[in-house]
From TrEMBL:
Keyword Membrane: yes
Keyword Glycosyltransferase part of the UniProt annotation: yes
Record-level Gene Ontology MF annotations: UDP-D-xylose:beta-D-glucoside alpha-1,3-D-xylosyltransferase activity
Lineage top rank: taxon: Eukaryota
Similarity comment text for this entry: Belongs to the glycosyltransferase 8 family.
Subcellular location: Membrane
Catalytic activity: 3-O-(beta-D-glucosyl)-L-seryl-[EGF-like domain protein] + UDP-alpha-D-xylose = 3-O-[alpha-D-xylosyl-(1->3)-beta-D-glucosyl]-L-seryl-[EGF-like domain protein] + UDP + H(+)
Topology of the protein relative to the lipid bilayer: Single-pass type II membrane protein
Signal peptide: 1-21
Keywords (A to Z) from UniProt: Glycoprotein, Glycosyltransferase, Membrane, Signal, Signal-anchor, Transferase, Transmembrane, Transmembrane helix
Protein name: UDP-D-xylose:beta-D-glucoside alpha-1,3-D-xylosyltransferase
GO BP, one annotated term: protein O-linked glycosylation via N-acetyl-galactosamine
GO cellular component: membrane
Length: 338
């Protein structure tokens, strides 16, 4: 019941987001201890100690994680499902920052909009977590003194890569990067003059960009490759990684990105079915038996595709992750009752 109450609160805040610019909330997750109730405020408190220009942001075991999600423009239901997956698979407290954005350029403005926040993970609304988000946060600790952001490559295959085939502007070599999941060291971005650098690029290449903020990020990091850390494709897994073959071999997919409406269109039943399974899952129930197992059953009955075949290979890993979280939650509940 407590999980349901908290999730209803999130839905209420999301609805409010269609009117307000942004809100800041502390979400309860599957963390091992209790934390204060979710509340709204007009400004965000610092998430981590402010680092120096050469400091490494984040630790290998974060006490809490800051997640930024963009919503509205017909994405309310998808955003709720996104947040549900983050809450279900997260084992540390989660600070959620929601943005209502008509132009979908929030990654370009957060350095100034969140002046007291040191670091965030930004994700598009069409993302589902299948692994604890704190594992992704650990990549902050692998950044060197020059890195100010981390992204995954746009694809792993040279022959089908969009940027190599169609881009009319500079892009991060050799395959470009995808902006759907992004680690942002906001402190370093402010020191770098992030927004001042992006403005002129937008003016110069406005007629050449096809993918909005993603193209601008590619243009910027093509000129400053030393500023970007690449993380594996498993943290931004898309149809590009499976529809023509198994191109992402970095490990079990941990964050699924339903770009190009993959969660909405039934043309790719593996992605559509995954979103349906998480949409129907209720927080507080077993992740393994109320989410992963129903998804596997749905996948086995659906039309066969290469992505579906790849997902069937990965289900065993998702079951193991879900089982680990279920056991931790059960043990914690029993400890409280004793």
């Amino acid at each position: 019941m407590a999980h349901l109450v908290r999730f209803v609160f999130v839905v209420f805040v999301l609805l409010a987001m269609c009117v307000l610019k942004y809100e800041y909330n502390n979400l309860w997750t599957n963390a091992p201890v209790d934390f204060p109730k979710a509340k709204k405020s007009q400004s965000a408190a610092p998430s981590l100690p402010q680092p120096s220009a050469t400091a490494v942001t984040g630790g290998s075991h974060p006490e809490r994680v800051k997640l930024v999600v963009v919503t509205c423009k017909g994405l309310l239901n998808m955003t709720v499902t996104n947040i549900k997956s983050a809450v279900a698979f997260t084992t540390v407290p989660l600070d959620l920052l929601l943005f209502a954005d008509d132009e979908n350029r929030e990654p370009l403005r957060q350095a100034s909009m969140l002046p007291d926040v040191d670091a965030v993970i930004y994700v598009d609304a069409d993302v589902l977590f299948l692994s604890p988000i704190e594992e992704l946060w650990k990549y902050f600790a692998t950044m060197n003194s020059s890195h100010l952001a981390a992204l995954a490559p746009e694809s792993e295959d040279y022959a089908t890569n969009w940027y190599r085939r169609f881009a009319r502007h500079p892009f991060y070599q050799p395959l470009g990067v995808n902006s759907g999941v992004m680690l942002m060291n906001l402190t370093r971005m402010r020191e770098f003059g992030w927004e001042k650098r992006l403005g002129p690029l937008l003016q110069k290449y406005s007629r050449d960009i096809s993918w909005g903020d993603q193209d601008l990020l590619n243009i910027l990091f093509s000129a400053h490759p030393e500023r970007l850390l690449l993380f594996p494709c498993r943290w931004n897994y898309r149809t590009d990684h499976c529809m023509y073959g198994a191109y992402c071999t970095a490990g079990p997919p941990a964050v699924i990105h339903g770009s190009r409406r993959a969660f909405i269109l039934e043309s790719e039943p593996a992605f559509w079915g995954l979103h349906q399974a998480m949409e129907q899952y209720e927080l507080g129930e077993s992740l393994e038996y109320s989410f992963v197992v129903p998804f596997k059953d749905r996948l086995q009955r659906s039309r066969k595709t290469r992505c579906g075949q790849e997902f069937l290979k990965q289900v065993v890993h998702w079951e193991a992750t879900a089982r680990t979280i279920d056991i931790a939650v059960t043990n914690r509940s029993q400890k409280k009752e004793s």
